[in-house]
């Protein structure tokens, strides 16, 4: 049986090991503030918004803070304002920031089968009815990236930038990534089609038309901030994975040549705003500063 002295010594050794590990982690991520940002629990979203009539239907909108440009948070598939709890208030300390529920999500009325362009028109009508003024920066997570690109193209003169958070852009995957997949290409094509079908079902979208609208969307000249979760295909070799990673960056760069800032969100999975809200907040801040400059 261990003596009290041995137990005390072991406790000191364990505590020192934990402290050393934390210290190394703090240094690795760039300081104590960043480390705390990564390890604090996600912020629970508090629904402080209201339903706004846009002409026979009402959509939920929650805008906080002051200043221009206005940041608009566009959620991923099936999600709404509630997905931005870790970002909304932090962004609102810098500028006016709005989160909302798309038609049929959360507290917003449905609209039946529609397209991405219809959703963009809904969002613009919502902002106008609520008195929220351009210029805008749209932050799109996952499927929200596709919505953001279509919105930015349709209302181009009112836009000052886009932040794309581990986005769903099947046009880029088809053109830039699938040719690099070799024997895995049919599997990836089938998986992408399954995602298209799921998006259409969950969001009540005419996805074939929406994807054509996405492909036609022109966001050239706009500053783009892109955050991507780290990924690797274990069935491909290192060279192939490097080529795929470079192809993703080049594909996003082609959307707005010379205006891309691209970053891998180390330590995050697909929902970067939950895993690494610090990176999303920093990307929004850079976009806001650039718009003001």
Summarize this, please?
This protein is an alpha/beta fold and 293 residues long. Helix content is 48%, strand content 15%. It has helices at 4-29, 32-39, 88-92, 116-129, 143-154, 170-177, 185-203, 207-216, 238-255, 272-275, 277-292, and strands at 50-53, 58-64, 70-74, 97-100, 136-141, 159-165, 224-228, 260-264.
Structure annotation, total helices: 11
In terms of quaternary structure, the protein is single chain
Q: Strand portion, in percent?
A: 5-15%
Arrangement of strands in the largest sheet: 1-2-4-3-5-6-7-8
**Percentage of residues assigned to helices:** 40-55%
Instruction: Report the sheet with the most strands, covering strand number, pairing sense and barrel closure.
Output: 8 strands, mixed
| Count of distinct strands | 8
Structural class: alpha/beta
Distance between the termini: 69 Å
Radius of gyration: 21 Å
Shape: globular
Q: Please provide the ordered H/E string of secondary-structure elements.
A: HHEEEHEHEHEHHHEHEHH
Mean pLDDT: 90
User: Unreliable segments (pLDDT under 50, ≥5 consecutive)?
Assistant: 6-31, 33-37
Would you mind describing this structure in some detail?
The chain has helices at 4-29, 32-39, 88-92, 116-129, 143-154, 170-177, 185-203, 207-216, 238-255, 272-275, 277-292; strands at residues 50-53, 58-64, 70-74, 97-100, 136-141, 159-165, 224-228, 260-264. It is an alpha/beta fold and 293 residues long. Strands 1-2-4-3-5-6-7-8 form an eight-stranded mixed sheet, with helices on both faces. Helix 4 crosses helix 5 (143-154), helix 5 crosses helix 8 (207-216) and helix 6 (170-177) packs across helix 9. The chain starts with a helix and ends with a helix. 37% of the residues are buried. Residues 6-31 and 33-37 have low confidence and may be disordered.
């Amino acid at each position: 049986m261990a003596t009290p002295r041995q137990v005390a010594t072991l406790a000191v050794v364990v505590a020192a090991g934990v402290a050393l590990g934390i210290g190394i982690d703090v240094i690795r991520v760039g300081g104590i503030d960043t480390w705390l940002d990564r390890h604090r629990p996600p912020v629970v979203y508090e629904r402080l918004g209201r339903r706004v009539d846009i002409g026979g239907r009402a959509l939920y909108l929650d805008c906080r803070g002051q200043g221009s440009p206005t940041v608009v948070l566009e959620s991923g598939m099936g999600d709404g304002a509630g997905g931005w709890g870790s970002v909304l208030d932090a962004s609102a300390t810098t500028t006016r920031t709005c989160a909302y529920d798309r038609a049929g999500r959360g507290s917003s009325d449905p609209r039946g089968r529609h397209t991405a362009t219809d959703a963009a028109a809904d969002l613009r009508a919502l902002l106008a009815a609520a008195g929220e003024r351009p210029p805008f920066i749209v932050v799109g997570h996952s499927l929200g990236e596709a919505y953001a690109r279509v919105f930015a193209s349709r209302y181009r003169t009112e836009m000052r930038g886009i932040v794309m958070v581990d986005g769903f852009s099947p046009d880029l995957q088809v053109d830039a990534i699938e040719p690099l997949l070799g024997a895995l290409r049919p599997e990836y094509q089938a998986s992408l089609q399954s995602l298209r079908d799921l998006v259409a079902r969950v969001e009540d979208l005419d996805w074939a038309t929406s994807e054509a609208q996405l492909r036609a969307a022109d966001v050239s000249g706009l500053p783009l901030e892109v955050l991507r979760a780290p990924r690797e295909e274990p069935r491909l070799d290192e060279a192939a994975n490097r080529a795929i990673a470079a192809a993703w960056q080049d594909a996003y760069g082609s959307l707005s040549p010379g205006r891309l800032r691209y970053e891998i969100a180390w330590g995050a999975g697909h929902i970067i705003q939950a895993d690494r809200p610090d990176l999303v907040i920093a990307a929004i801040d850079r976009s806001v500063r650039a718009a003001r400059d």
